[in-house]
């Protein structure tokens, strides 16, 4: 719920600051290959921190509203967002 609250806050801030030319970019990262995740079981879709930083800088330069990094994470989350709640509850995650 904290992530959803932060996203909603960023949306409001983005709308509020739009006329002043200030951009607010929401970054939704996937798993990053860090010391904390290295060697973890099931960690196969990870990105390097350098690649994530590059994606973030590019998104800020282009004044994007929301980005997913690594880029393939967008497709994964799009699929998950479109799964109906009744089905999501029954899936074994």
Secondary structure tally, helices: 4
User: What is the typical, i.e. mean, pLDDT?
Assistant: 89
Give the uncertain stretches in residue-range form: none
Total DSSP E strands: 4
Radius of gyration: 16 Å
Category from helices, strands and their pairing:
alpha/beta
Describe it.
46% of the residues lie in helices and 13% in strands. The chain contains four helices and four strands; from the N terminus they run αβββαβαα.
Short description:
The chain is of the alpha/beta class. Helices cover 46% and strands 13% of the residues.
Write the layout of secondary structure elements.
Layout (H helix, E strand, L loop, with lengths): L1 H16 L8 E4 L1 E2 L13 E2 L1 H13 L4 E4 L2 H10 L3 H4 L5
What labels describe this entry?
4 strands, 4 helices, alpha/beta, two-stranded parallel sheet, 93 residues
